[in-house]
Amino acid sequence: MKAVLGFAALSLIAAVLAISLSQVPFGVDRMEVARYYLENGASDTGAANLVTSVVLNYRALDTLGEVTVLFIASLGVGAFLALRRRGEGSLPPASLIVRRGSQFLFPLILIFGAYIFLHGHLTPGGGFQGGAVIASAFLLMFLGQYEYSLSHRPLSITESLAGLTFVIVGLIGIAAGGYFLSNFLPKGSLLSLFSAGVIPILYVAIGFKVGAELAGIVAAMLGPRGEE
Amino acid sequence: MIYISLLTVAMLGAGVAAYFLKDLIAAVVACAAVSLIASLLFYLLQAPDVAMAEAAIGAGLSTAVFVIAIRKTERYEK
Q1: Residue A65 and which of A27, A57, A196, B2 are 20 to 30 A apart at CA?
Q2: pTM: predicted TM-score of the whole model, two decimal places
């Protein structure tokens, strides 16, 4: 009986799929939305990087959702791991070269991350990539220096301020342009740093937010550090 | 084109190695190799944005998170 029901359900699904797929014309370009973005992206948004024009203009609301998902994930990691207190035992300190090398590279990696999200509308990359690079700088410090630790409060303040900036810019967009996250600032000239309206502001906010969240996840995974 | 195919084969090999390795640290390094080759492929296939995210998150941060988790639990699969 079960097998018959299952077979009937499967044949129904197969029939519906076959009928609807047979309506799709074969060999015809269906990517009309993508073609619109390719043709009008730069003039609509002022961003030279087409991926950015999709992520922060046409689909900016989805990006807000994405940032929220990451926020909830880091909140979950923090909630699971923050209460646990277990000593790491005594690790031998890293060698002088590793410690000094990580200290030397740390600001350079931070600057590179900031460069990536500041130029998100001009070159490949953006807030997520720049934030991940910044978090990897903190990871290098965690790995290179046993006593290095991040306190929780500045991270959460950065995260909250960046999230608030995103939402407030979106709300100003309602007042100025009629819909959430509308690009209300002047678009400027293509390929200059101060162009593309609100996109650089949003990407700076996303860069700080993602960097703080990912660094916070790594810090929570490592647990309490230093002398215990 | 040959270069891309070679990279794809290497990526598959690293993925299979990650499945069969019993030393979990080695398996995580194999996963990182998959991510690294994937980011290289993204770059070669003209998706530099995705390549950057994959290199930083897939090969860098998630590897570190896995290694930290393994160090706090057990290193060898039973």
Answers
A1: A196
A2: 0.82
